[in-house]
Amino acid sequence: MPMELPPCPECGSTYTYEMDALLVCPECGHEWSAAAEDTKVIRDSVGNPLADGDTVTVIKDLKLGGTSSSVKVGTKVKNIRLVDGDHDIDCKIPGVGQIGLKSQFVKKVTK
């Protein structure tokens, strides 16, 4: 059984192929490193890579499921922890408690 290659990260084409140490998409011409597929990089809403311990800011009001409360835009969240799954950030927000956030709704705070 042949090894299944990942789809192109640019256009989503499933016709990728290997060329030396690179993966190539014949439809859009995008080339990327096969080694990069091993480590998933989680990025914020503007494309900055996130890491454990970073501080982020919430970029839109987020309604909390099962409650009438929400996390307001501009809320600063310190010491995040990256996890696998749909909600890829675990954190503790003062006044709310332990919560999972999606990286698409936060922006990294640069020092």
TrEMBL record:
Pfam families, per the entry: YjdM (PF03831), Zn_Ribbon_YjdM (PF08274)
Protein YjdM C-terminal domain sequence ranges: 42-109
Residue stretches making up the Protein YjdM N-terminal domain: 4-33
InterPro entries on file: YjdM, YjdM_C, YjdM_N
Domain of life: Bacteria
Signal peptide extent: none
Cited PANTHER family: PROTEIN YJDM, PROTEIN YJDM-RELATED
Family per similarity comment: Belongs to the YjdM family.
NCBIfam families the UniProt entry points to: phnA
Listed name of the protein: Alkylphosphonate utilization protein
